[in-house]
Amino acid sequence: MILLCILILLAMCGPAHGICGQTCGLRPMRTALSSSRVVGGIDVAPGLGAWAGIASIRCFWDPPVSAHVCGGTLISSQWLLTAAHCFINITNPISQWAIVLGATSLGQSGPDVVVRRIKRLIMHENYIPQLEYNDIALLELDRPVPCSSSIQTACLPGPGVKVSELKNCYVAGWGDRIVKSSGNDILQQAKVQVVDNKLCNSSEWLHGYIYDFHVCAGQGGVGTCQGDSGGPLVCQDKHADFFWQIGVTSWGVGCARPKRPAVSSATQYYYDWIQKKIGTRPAPTVTPTPLQTPKPTQPCPFPREKLRQFFNLLKEILQFLKEKMF
Q1: Is residue 223 situated within a structural domain?
Q2: Dist. CA 117–CA 101, nearest whole Å
Q3: Is position 293 within any domain?
Q4: What residue ranges in 79-158 does DSSP mark as E strands?
Q5: Among residues 121, 112, 55, 114, which one has the least CA distance to residue 90?
Q6: 3-state SS class at 102
Q7: Which 3-state string (H, E, C) describes 197-238?
Q8: What angle do CA 109, 114, 40 make, to 5 degrees?
Q9: C-alpha–C-alpha distance, residues 99 and 104, integer Å
Q10: Whether the Cβ atoms of residue 212 and residue 197 lie closer than 8 Å to each other
Q11: 208 lies in which domain range?
């Protein structure tokens, strides 16, 4: 019976969390604490894998002082996805900036929090600052990030994913600390409605400023604000309990005003550009079926290798007892 239980545990644990890319798109955590910044949002409590791919991009000065500038999401062990406008008119070298992952509070530290420096910044070649066209960028980190229950990668939709059919969407970030300072620095999340691009581009809404490379979401009291730039807009997969990142927060007219949704850069539009820059092959154009959909595994309560060692030790003990009895 003991051996059977151990075998079941080994089967349930799945791959170790040390390798990024084996799981992605962990779902936002439900909680009931209200706050501001992501306007109309709620606090995200630490742990439990909530918003596991999100990162705080921080600028550092001497003496050591840091400030949150933008959000971003981990898309592989050494690459972060964010907005290009976060790096316009920067005054200190990008190598002095830092990426903080695994934290829900800006002041959080400890074994779950990982800090990396930026090795390289890649802004879209056709980024136009005045119009925020092609507002997307990639950051290569100085060292790979070990994935864990609190740090995972985002899932980017390839050409086969029907993004228009995805529902149950969220935004997250540490923004609006100046406009609506609440005295804390806790990550905010909010459930938002994605607005069809045709409606978003109509005369009563954003009147001609929306293109195919945009996604509109959140308005009327719920949405992103200053400091949320570069952060994720995610929507739940139709067949599994994980989320696709469909947008990178780019710009908005005010914060969560009626008929003025926040505008994100559409990750599906830039999917091939992203894959080319980070050196991976684009996904096939076929539509994924439920069996093909990558469903995140849950963190194993025990390290897999430790269970194997215990299993082998237990076999030796049983063999020893068997020899003594007979």
Answers
A1: yes
A2: 11
A3: no
A4: 79-82, 98-101, 114-123, 137-141
A5: 121
A6: coil
A7: HHHHCCCCCCCCCCCCCEEEECCCCCECCCCCCCCEEEEECC
A8: 70
A9: 13
A10: yes
A11: 42-278
pLDDT score for 114: 93
Identify the active-site residue in 17, 43, 76, 135: 135
Let me know if residue 230 belongs to a domain: yes
Q: Which of 35, 56, 76, 85 is catalytic?
A: 85
Residue among 195, 234, 177 at smallest CA distance from 28: 234
CATH code, domain carrying 171: 2.40.10.10
Specify the 3-state DSSP secondary structure of 31.
coil
Residue 287 lies in a domain: no
Residue position matching structure tokens 């007219």: 253
Q: Residues for the chain: how many in total?
A: 326
**Helix, strand, or coil here: 283?**
coil
85 is catalytic: yes
The yes-or-no answer on residue 34 being catalytic is no
Lookup: tokens for 298: 């849950």
- The three-state secondary structure class of 326 is coil
Which tokens sit at 15? 């791959």
Segments of the chain scoring below 70 in pLDDT: 1-19, 21-22, 26-50, 52, 61-64, 176-184, 219-227, 254-256, 281-316, 320, 322-326
Considering 56, 229, 264, 265, which one is annotated as catalytic? 229
Tally of structural domains, the chain = 1
